[in-house]
Specification:
Keywords: Transferase. This protein has 268 residues and is of the alpha+beta class. It has eight helices and eleven strands.
């Protein structure tokens, strides 16, 4: 069993961890009682194994970053149920597909990571319509037929990584994330960009085992920047704060109710 760090910027840690019996047995004791109960409730044992390895790897990585034992890591929930670290010292994200788990942790950026296992799609046209805008569909249509499926997975991982970075996941349509494309290239560049609702993202395609696609999305201003912004807001006098307070939701959006949307790899 091995934990293999993927290549990532210096202020980020990204781990790839295999989902196998040995790793699952080693990581299970790192989970909380509630997490072990959740793993046991999955109908498919493979789903329970992915959850166990993903949560155990996350606790191990966060514990190393914080200098504490993995079981002592206190996890909570942010908006839309996104797992978060109590106290907000680090931002992190986890993805899993088939027999692999990826974890990303940063002190300085908002991070989202998506991992997909490439396989034949029974409803490739439906997935393309869900995931891509008109510009991206035209790009896919211009590729050789053999390359379209791989390119679609690259687009999907880029889009879902962005949505996971901001915490909404597939509550938002993947087609709303605009990925920068080069019409002359049959694949996304290793370093790319995307945007969602006017917010920019940096994309990085990370190396991973054959048959998978792994994409990291980041935004500047991670936990450290958010704490500084919060401290600056607290320095504002009550009168100034009241005058500056926006009416209603400052994002201008409300979370959508959502049923599960189909992921291209059909993962759990």
């Amino acid at each position: 069993m091995s934990h293999r760090p993927a290549h990532a910027p210096a202020d980020l840690r990204v781990w790839l961890v295999p989902v196998d019996a040995a790793t699952c047995a080693r990581f299970a004791p790192l989970l909380s009682t509630a997490e072990r109960g959740r793993a046991a409730r999955f109908r498919d044992p493979a789903d329970g194994a992915r959850f166990t390895v993903g949560r155990g790897a996350l606790r191990l990585l966060l514990g190393r970053c914080l200098g504490i034992a993995p079981p002592a890591v206190e996890l909570t929930r942010a908006a839309h149920g996104r797992p978060a670290l109590a106290g907000g010292a680090l931002d992190f994200n986890v993805a899993h597909a088939h027999r692999l788990v990826a974890c990303a942790v940063s002190r300085t950026r908002r991070v989202g990571i998506d991992l997909e296992w490439i396989r034949v799609l029974r409803e490739q046209h439906a997935v393309t319509a869900l995931a891509c805008d008109e510009r991206e569909r035209a790009w896919l249509d211009g590729l050789p037929p053999r390359g379209r499926r791989q390119a679609l997975f690259e687009l999907w991982t880029a889009k879902e990584a962005c949505l996971k970075a901001i915490g909404c996941g597939l509550l938002e349509e993947p087609a709303a994330v605009a990925v920068a494309l080069d019409p002359a290239r049959p694949e996304l560049p290793e370093h790319g960009a995307a945007s969602f609702a006017g917010a920019p993202f940096a994309l990085r395609r990370l190396p991973c085992p054959p048959g998978y696609r792994l994409t990291l999305a980041t935004q500047p201003g991670g936990p450290a920047a958010e704490r500084e912004q919060r401290m600056q807001r607290e320095r504002v006098t009550p009168r100034r704060a009241a005058a500056a307070a926006p009416a209603g939701d400052p994002t201008g959006r409300r979370p959508r109710s959502s049923s599960a949307r189909p992921a291209p790899a059909g993962r759990a």
